[in-house]
Amino acid sequence: MTMRYRLFGRTGLRVSEVVLGTMILDDERELRRVLDTYAEAGGNFVDTASCYGRSEDLLGAVLTDRDRFVLGTKYTVSHDRDDPNASGNHRKNLVGSLERSLRRLRTDHVDVYWVHVWDRHTPIEETMRALDDVVRAGKVLYVGVSDAPAWLVAQANTLANWRGWTPFAGLQVPYSLIWRDAERELLPMAEAFGMSVTAWAPLGGGALTGTSTRAAPESLSAKDRPVAEAVWAVAGELGVSAAQVALAWTRRRAPVLPIVGVRDADQLANSLGAVDLVLPDDVVDRLEAATGFEAGFPTDFISQCETDPFVFGNTAPAVGGRPRWTGSQPAGDR
To answer: What InterPro entries does the record point to (predicted)?
Structure first.
């Protein structure tokens, strides 16, 4: 197994190409096994959140080699449903949530602090300034944003760049063969701002693994079933697991780092097999054809315009320009 590392956004931070998700791990002994397996494979990027039950507490107990890992956690979600200020992206919840996370994680700083979800009621200026303050205080090293529209993230980073605040270096979104919506606006936006993307649910919420869905295909929707069956067929042909195929596809998409959430070390070891799996182009075409995905307007319309002499003249096909996000490419070329 050859774990590679990527720079986190436009920073010098090195993060492994597979992220360890800890949301469903609730046993301290098994978490130790999982972390050992992950570290032995070269993994170093661990993802948690303030709302993930015991996750932060358990990580604080088992991360004895704290500096070996890039530790990221998130805030936004309510910790007291009767308190209107116990959720959201405003300064009060940001600071309070961070302090609780630091106590649980038994550390004086987190490497990446994520806004968990867009809060429509908090001005983005307040959030970005508050994030910059905790970075300047040394309690946070880098910041990222999860589950927010592309226009908002673009606004936030433009604002941060203008005012000398810390911009978002990472974007976290759901992304898999089953859920490709991020290709429309979010992935191109991330590339334009030089942001790393961490993908949650890269296995389609378990639909693509085949572990339970093969035995109960009726549990899959009419839309998802052809995709899952294509993944299972490719896995059989290549002699690998369905999870490895699904993760290998996600890793092809520049600049995506899949978050692998597991229940035990054996499940993690299987998923990490995707690191060395390179899918042939014809296989990728088959998998993507099964999704029936269309980018829609304006992406498809603009692509048509780029080669239309009516729009850009007869020389349009001969014009080169700055690189732009074009979809899948081999992981080795990223």
So the answer is: AKR (IPR020471), AKR_Detox_Biosynth (IPR050523), NAD(P)_OxRdtase_dom_sf (IPR036812), NADP_OxRdtase_dom (IPR023210)
The pTM score is: 0.92
Q: Are strands 14-16 and 140-146 parallel, antiparallel or unpaired?
A: unpaired
Give the DSSP per-residue string, 193-226.
Answer: TT-EEEEE-TTGGGTTT-TTTTT-GGGS-TTTHH
Q: Is the pLDDT of residue 333 over 90?
A: no
Residues in the chain: 334
DSSP state of 332: G
Residues β-bridged to residue 140: 110
Give the integer Cα–Cα distance in Å for 241 and 14: 28
Whether residue 52 lies in the annotated active site: yes
Q: Which of 14-28, 54-68, 314-328 has the lowest mean pLDDT?
A: 314-328
Q: How far is CA 7 from the centre of its chain?
A: 14
Could you give the 3-state DSSP secondary structure of residue 140? strand
- Separation between Cα atoms, residue 101 and residue 105, nearest integer Å: 6
* pLDDT score recorded for residue 332: 41
Q: Which domains does the chain have, with CATH numbers?
A: 5-333 (3.20.20.100)
Q: Distance between CA 282 and CA 106 in Å, rounded?
A: 48
Which tokens go with 137? 């205080």
Annotated active-site residue in 38, 52, 113, 175: 52
| Two tokens, residue 26 | 């609730």
Distance of alpha carbon 145 from alpha carbon 156, whole angstroms: 10
Q: How many CB atoms lie within 10 A of CB 97?
A: 26
Could you tell me where the beta strands, DSSP code E, fall in the chain?
A: 5-7, 14-16, 19-21, 45-47, 70-75, 110-115, 140-146, 168-174, 196-200, 256-261
Record the tokens describing residue 252, joined without a space: 């092809």
Query: Which of 187, 112, 202 shows the shortest CA–CA distance to 150?
Result: 187
